[in-house]
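User: Predict structure, ligand S-adenosylmethionine.
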Amino acid sequence: MRLLTHNMLSSNIKGVTNGFPLRIEAVKVEEKTVEMNTDFLKNMFVKIDWKVLVEASRTLGYAELPEEGDSSFLESDEFLSRFHHALLELHLEEGALICPETGRRFPVTKGIPNMLLHEDEV
Amino acid sequence: MASRPESIAPPEIFYDDVEARKYTSSSRIVQIQAELSERALELLALPEDGVPKLLLDIGCGSGLSGETLSEDGHHWIGLDISPSMLNIAVEREVEGDLLLADMGQGLGIRPGVIDGAISISAVQWLCNADKSSHNPRLRLKAFFTSLYKCLSNGARAVFQVYPENIDQRELILNAAMRAGFAGGIVVDFPHSSKKRKEFLVLTCGQRSMNASVPNGKDEDGESCSDDDMEEDENQTVCISDRHRPRKRPKTNKSGKGREWIMRKKDQMKRRGNVVPPNTKYTGRKRKDRF
Ligand SMILES: C[S@@+](CC[C@H](N)C(=O)[O-])C[C@H]1O[C@@H](n2cnc3c(N)ncnc32)[C@H](O)[C@@H]1O
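Assistant: Predicted complex:
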């Protein structure tokens, strides 16, 4: 799972009012190089929760994102390549996602978060 | 006729390791799913600005449908309830991110962030009650309302579905409309029992006010509109758009009567439209003050 997806996911447990962001427990992280598309990054920038991306990328061992995100940064190639790397090249392979409200663990195996709810959570 | 997978076992049981591999190594299935996905992507009508989008593939399975999205340069998040199908997707190194999830439990995705969604040959599974705790109506509701929320304004969702019968089609369409979607059903190759394919084309939000449902395809690849077969049972396009202003009925002192209404409703139903059930109130004369 890439941080792009992590930034969109929230806990769906019944009764949880703010299931975002899911806390990351990283056991194994992989990097895969993909081609950069500036237009995609610019479009995504407005949808991304920047603080959450900064925090998540740190958890995966990448600490090169500026603390604050500002759309004026999108003019900088250096910024774009860091943003690209954090968003699309880091993969959480093994670990877990934790619901911020209930502490429920959603295990991640082979890069796939298991988001299935138990019957009493629906 | 072979029986439907949906009536054999729940999806996560039916699509076990053996079935998942068989499914994905059949060149016939690979080709059909690719064609369906391409058509779904076409019906999504994404802006042609060359900018990759963030899409959902619901019931993504082993990634056959998602691959079409990748080929078009888009990023996607796929979810499926079958671990075996997802394992094959990992094996095939699909480019989308995968989630093990049950769409009937609703999607846990932030509001307004997704540019479009496709689902190929999957949503009809929701019409089954595989566990005693399953209520198809509630599961469809959870699915469509959560999907509606996570789509950005004006985004579309296109589902290729195999409803078992008219009731299932209606159940699905009804749930989608109740969640706020506008849209309807597009039927490709309506006259061929083999090639006939149904797509639910839904639009979300403001721009859906003037959403129109595109035409289906005919044998020769031409698109065919519905006006050349007004009274045909195999309607190509059914539009059920609750945002569409109702046609004002011609005022007629005596009214049309219950019989006429029932006949009309049957006709609409056969075309796959959403029709309210008949009750003792159907066609009853209103009080004067109305
Ligand atoms: C016929 S396969 C299609 C897979 C893929 N879309 C393709 O085109 O090859 C249907 C898929 O829907 C999935 N499915 C069925 N019910 C589901 C549910 N409630 N939530 C998520 N996926 C489901 C099944 O596990 C299966 O992988």
